[in-house]
Amino acid sequence: MYEDKYTITDSKQDILSHPRRRDYIHVLTLDPTLADDVCERIGADKRLVRCRLICPRGTNVRDALEEMERTAPQTASSRLIIFDVRRATLPKLRHAFNAIVGYNRRDFNKLCYSICIGDGPLNLFRNGGFAELFVPHLAAHRVDFHPAAFFYDPFLHYEPSEVVLQSIDDEFVISDAIPKRLAPFFKNDSMKVGTIRQFFRAVDKDEQTRKKRQRMLRHVYKKRLAELFPEQQEQLKDLLTRGGIQWASEKMNLYPLYFEDWVYDLMHEARQHAIAKPNAPAD
Question: What pLDDT, on the 0 to 100 scale, is given for residue 136?
Fold first, then answer.
């Protein structure tokens, strides 16, 4: 059973603060394919062996959504919360996410950190721009979720022509098809995103194989960015680094490049803040 041991202190200064957090990581998504990728990557990293992963166990979208809403207060025990903020599912998750942010707002970027994984602006590839469209997109998520890092995931990004329209009575389905702009890099365009994610994370392979596949994915991203934005190659090269790209106050990384490193660093930072905070020993 989940141990609900967070506390709300009585002092005015610490109201709505939850100092007794643990090495828990909440992974909040309706997509089992992304959940598997995030959890297996974290679970395979020896630096994160102490961490406990918590994600919805619902077998369908409705059950997972209800579970997130019901257990929102329990996120106040975690040091890290990972939000799936793709356009397709965010409207369904907005109510639950608002509640979760409310429980953790005072502790964000101190005792608790958040990471957003999402797609990009709807018209990203139409006007040839990049920063001009991404900056307001990132700014909106910063206001809503206070992320320490935003990971843009090209395998979540579908253009309007690729989105299957569903009636209000249809069961909600999350696409597992390869986005058309990435399909040319794979021999079989009928492959599913889940298969591709499993290949690149390679958690069942040796370290040399995992690094080789990471380089392969980085090459795919680098080549596609060069093709899509030929005049912005110099600016976008930072997107392939651990630090990511930054425009003024907005910054962004590419999922899953260096994702585990970010998780490790943020968990470490949260523990350090807990040690420094009076009456909040690190668990």
Answer: 92
pLDDT for residue 279:
56
| Rounded Cα gap, residues 183 and 283, in angstroms | 45
Beta bridge partners, 118, equal 152
Full strand arrangement of the beta sheet holding 80-84: 52-54, 24-28, 80-84, 113-118, 149-152, 250-254, 245-247
Q: Which 3-state string (H, E, C) describes the chain?
A: CCCCCCCCCCCCCCCCCCCCCCCEEEEECCCHHHHHHHHHHHHHCHHHCCCEEECCCCCCHHHHHHHHHHCHHHHHHCCEEEEECCCCCHHHHHHHHHHHHHHHHHHECCCEEEEEEECCCCCCCCCCCCHHHHHHHHHHHHHHHCCCEEEECHHHCCCHHHCCCCCCCCCCCCCCECCCCCHHHCCCCCCEHHHHHHHHHCCCCCHHHHHHHHHHHHHHHHHHHHHHCHHHHHHHHHHHCCCCEEECCEEEEECCCCHHHHHHHHHHHHHHHHHHCCCCCCC
Rounded Cα gap, residues 63 and 70, in angstroms = 10
Q: What is the pLDDT of residue 167?
A: 44
Q: Which two tokens stand for residue 149?
A: 């890092």
Nearest CA to 176 among 196, 160, 159, 161? 196
Any idea which residue has 């929102």 for tokens? 72
Alpha carbons 80 and 69: distance in angstroms, whole number? 18
User: Which residue ranges of the chain lie beneath pLDDT 50?
Assistant: 1-15, 167-169, 280-283
Does residue 256 have a cis peptide bond before it, meaning omega lies within 30 degrees of 0?
A: yes
